[in-house]
């Protein structure tokens, strides 16, 4: 066989091996996120990709990165398939193709990161630390793009591997979740760089990995020990009705669903604010006087209800539908409300509806209309509150009104679509990161779980797990002063990347100068 043919076969075999390594490494990242949170797998997964990209062309690196992403998302978001089986007769056959297609599309972002890194690294020789910084920067740019392109899907960001580690997640208060991803990936690939280095450089890179972990832990520990503001003295009651998704919208179940929420809400105990989850009332509550009268009977002594409900408004173009949270007082009247602004594609609306003959997965008369954006609600006797409905809580810096800072965040959600899968745990991880980023407690009311009280450090204070029916009675945790990330958003990410590169370039130039000076002195001596 001709040498060029053998060489071509060897190259293809090498690419296939690298893609297989990438796929396995991507799948391992799923175990780094909640509910598993296996921290030791973080350097294993990202270092494997880092090493696997060495000496590859742009196109081959893209394929290896795509294989990594396919493993990461294929195993990481498989639970989305469960939503198709809620109405299996209509959507069941679409489950596997839809999740496979979504995973393949999302895998393009790790592929972009891998190709960008490989191309720049191949064009110019650089030391181990600069290579690690380049990889972390490329990864973070791709994650940021994934969080913004086509409305965005910032799910399972690399930094969420630290969610269950109290001190390590606190860095997000300064640089946000994307910045935490940058630091996580940078530290995670240092062992890979050390494995490829030799001599003194291997020791330097190894020590850098330990220093990075120690610094993040120390800074986070100091933040945890600092004092928060005084608690506001407000008592909450979160109601988790635990209504299966396939039963929730059936007309014959409406009364039973409403009765369950009322029964749980009126159990013995004191509270100031009553919290029901997303679309807890499966109808248009503002149009139902009898239902509002029954709610008013449960809101004695100046209590307030915040509940998720659908809403509709007539317009010149026909009726517009909104996914909202509305506030009611003891008279049963609406005090104020918030309309969800970041809608779920194919769940709450169909993108490019004129071109795509696809039905929505959720019941309803038409697509939802997005609200105007983040909003702070002022309620009598209640600290200022921001509202994020379900999916909205996954978006860093898009939950709070920057001009009117609230004292807490209410996350009304419904994860019943995803059963007892890992999906609700991953969703909860995002809510915990929003608490750290904003320095605000997040109160989460979920239809079937997981309902929680999260303090301003991202710690879970009280919890009702998936599949449980019940209530949480808890005091509203205190807020912290505005974090740097709350004040400057993703500009802090840019500042972190620029500062890291400035430091690394200066350190690299100093090392090269010392080496050159030593060489000159040896020659002259």
Automatic annotation (TrEMBL):
Compartments in which it is found: Cell membrane
CDD domains listed in its UniProt record: ALP_N-acyl_transferase (cd07571)
Domain of life: Bacteria
GO biological process: lipoprotein biosynthetic process
Pathway the protein acts in: Protein modification; lipoprotein biosynthesis (N-acyl transfer)
Entry's transmembrane regions: 21-46, 58-81, 93-118, 124-142, 174-196, 203-222, 491-511
Keyword annotations from UniProtKB, A to Z: Acyltransferase, Cell membrane, Membrane, Transferase, Transmembrane, Transmembrane helix
GO molecular function per UniProt: N-acyltransferase activity
PROSITE patterns noted in UniProt: CN_HYDROLASE
Enzyme Commission code(s) on record: 2.3.1.269
Cellular component annotations (GO), alphabetically ordered: plasma membrane
CN hydrolase domain ranges (all copies): 239-478
Keyword hit for Transferase: yes
Predominant place of localization: membrane
Gene3D superfamilies (alphabetical): Carbon-nitrogen hydrolase
Membrane topology, from the record: Multi-pass membrane protein
InterPro entries: Apolipo_AcylTrfase, C-N_Hydrolase, C-N_Hydrolase_sf, LNT_N
Main EC class the enzyme belongs to: transferase
Functional description taken from the UniProt entry: Catalyzes the phospholipid dependent N-acylation of the N-terminal cysteine of apolipoprotein, the last step in lipoprotein maturation.
HAMAP family: Lnt
Family: Belongs to the CN hydrolase family. Apolipoprotein N-acyltransferase subfamily.
Record's protein name: Apolipoprotein N-acyltransferase
Organism expressing this protein natively: Primorskyibacter flagellatus
Organism ancestry: Bacteria, Pseudomonadati, Pseudomonadota, Alphaproteobacteria, Rhodobacterales
């Amino acid at each position: 066989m001709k040498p060029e043919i053998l060489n071509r076969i060897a190259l293809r075999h090498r690419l296939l091996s690298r893609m297989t390594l990438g796929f396995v490494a991507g799948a391992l990242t799923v175990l780094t996120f909640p509910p598993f949170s296996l921290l030791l797998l973080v350097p294993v997964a990202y270092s494997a990709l880092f090493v696997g990209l060495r000496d590859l062309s742009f196109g081959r690196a893209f394929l290896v990165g795509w294989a990594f992403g396919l493993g990461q998302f294929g195993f990481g978001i498989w639970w989305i398939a469960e939503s198709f089986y809620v109405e299996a007769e209509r959507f069941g056959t679409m489950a596997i193709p839809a999740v496979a297609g979504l995973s393949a599309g999302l895998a393009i972002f790790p592929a972009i990161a891998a190709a960008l890194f490989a191309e720049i690294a191949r064009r110019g020789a650089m030391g181990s630390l600069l290579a690690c910084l380049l990889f972390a920067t490329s990864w973070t740019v791709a994650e940021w793009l994934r969080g913004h392109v086509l409305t965005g899907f910032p799910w399972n960001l690399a930094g969420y591997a630290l969610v269950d580690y109290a001190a390590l997640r606190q860095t997000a208060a300064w640089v946000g979740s994307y910045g935490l991803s940058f630091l996580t990936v940078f530290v995670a690939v240092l062992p890979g760089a050390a494995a490829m280095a030799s001599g003194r450089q291997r020791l330097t890179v190894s020590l850098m990995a330990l220093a990075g972990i120690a610094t993040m832990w120390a800074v986070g520990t100091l933040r945890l020990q600092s004092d928060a503001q005084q608690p506001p003295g407000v008592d909450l009651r979160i109601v988790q009705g635990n209504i299966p998704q396939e039963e929730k919208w059936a007309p014959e179940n409406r009364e039973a669903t409403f009765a369950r929420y009322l029964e749980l809400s009126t159990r013995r105990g004191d509270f100031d604010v009553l919290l029901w989850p997303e679309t807890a009332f499966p109808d248009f509550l503002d149009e139902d006087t009898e239902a509002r009268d029954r709610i008013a009977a449960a809101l004695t002594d100046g209590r307030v209800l915040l509940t998720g409900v659908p809403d509709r408004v007539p317009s010149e173009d026909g009726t517009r539908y909104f996914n909202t949270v509305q506030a009611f007082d003891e008279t049963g009247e609406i005090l104020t409300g918030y309309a969800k602004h970041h809608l779920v594609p194919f769940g709450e609306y169909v993108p490019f509806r004129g071109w795509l003959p696809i039905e929505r997965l959720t019941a309803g008369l038409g697509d939802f209309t997005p609200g105007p954006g983040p909003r702070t609600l002022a309620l009598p006797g209640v600290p200022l509150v921001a509202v994020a409905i379900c999916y909205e809580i996954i978006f860093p810096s898009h939950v709070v009104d920057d001009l009117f800072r609230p004292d807490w965040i209410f996350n009304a959600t419904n994860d019943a679509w995803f059963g007892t899968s890992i999906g609700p745990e991953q969703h909860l991880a995002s809510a915990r990161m929003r608490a750290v980023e904003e320095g605000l407690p997040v109160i989460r009311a979920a239809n079937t779980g997981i309902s929680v009280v999260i303090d301003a450090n991202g710690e879970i204070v009280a919890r009702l797990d998936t599949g449980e029916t019940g209530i949480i009675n808890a005091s509203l945790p205190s807020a912290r002063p505005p974090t740097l990330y709350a004040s400057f958003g993703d500009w802090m990410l840019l500042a972190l990347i620029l500062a890291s590169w400035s430091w690394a370039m200066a350190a690299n130039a100093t090392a090269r100068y010392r080496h050159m000076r030593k060489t000159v002195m040896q020659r002259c001596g």
